[in-house]
């Protein structure tokens, strides 16, 4: 499965686990409008590290934090 597929699936799982309403995921979706809060994103990043074997936020000191869902996916694509 692609990184985007894994991210999408895990975002849906985290939203369901925490009773959040997830906005439709598309590349232009601003992450703060996704329906997930900061705790959900922390859990998501931990699950992604387990699933993909990488945490792009710790790979480099100059990581630019993603703003959109597309940015988030690209961050993981580039880290892999």
Notes on the structure:
The chain is mainly α and 80 residues long. Helix 1 crosses helix 2.
Short description:
Helix content is 56%, strand content 0%. It has 80 residues and is an all-alpha fold.
Strand content: under 5%
Overall, the morphology is: globular
Give the helix tally: 4
The whole-number mean of residue pLDDT values reads: 94
Which range best describes the helical content: under 10%, 10-25%, 25-40%, 40-55%, 55-70% or over 70%?
A: 55-70%
CA-based gyration radius:
12 Å
Essential attributes:
mainly alpha, 4 helices, 80 residues
Please outline the helices and strands.
Elements: H1 3-17, H2 38-52, H3 56-59, H4 69-79
Helix pairs in contact: 1-2
């Amino acid at each position: 499965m692609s990184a985007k597929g894994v991210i999408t699936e895990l975002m849906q799982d985290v939203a369901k686990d925490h009773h959040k309403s997830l906005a439709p995921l598309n590349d232009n979706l601003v992450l703060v409008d996704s329906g997930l809060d900061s705790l959900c994103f922390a859990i998501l990043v931990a699950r992604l590290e387990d699933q993909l074997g990488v945490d792009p936020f710790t790979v480099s000191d100059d990581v630019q934090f993603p703003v959109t869902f597309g940015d988030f996916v690209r961050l993981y694509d580039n880290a892999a």
